[in-house]
Write a sequence for this structure.
């Protein structure tokens, strides 16, 4: 079952300070509202980019781990193939004479 590793919440774009209480300044002009909204959108985009980099770094680590494990398995399979080839190249053991016991 997957677990949530990151929580990304949207922020209020058009409210100053992300929706917190207004400070002593009151935004009265449309230009100020547009500038504030643009800054909020850019901050959200920055946060989203940071999260995406984190996800991609985690994926890269997982891929490196899978690559190492598959390389180890490939080596084991190659050793096993060599061992089987050696066993097949040897003549089969002869049967023991009657009356003798294997110890």
């Amino acid at each position: 079952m997957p677990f949530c590793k990151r929580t990304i919440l949207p922020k209020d774009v058009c409210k100053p300070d992300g929706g917190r209480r207004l400070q002593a300044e009151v935004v009265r002009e449309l230009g100020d509202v547009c500038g504030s909204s643009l800054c909020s959108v850019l901050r959200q985009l920055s946060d989203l980019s940071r999260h995406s980099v984190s996800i991609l770094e985690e994926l890269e680590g997982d891929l490196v781990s899978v690559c190492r494990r598959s390389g180890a398995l490939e080596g084991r399979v190659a050793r096993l193939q060599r061992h089987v080839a050696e066993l097949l190249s040897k003549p089969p053991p002869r049967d023991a004479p009657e009356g003798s016991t294997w110890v």
Notes: The mean pLDDT is 80.
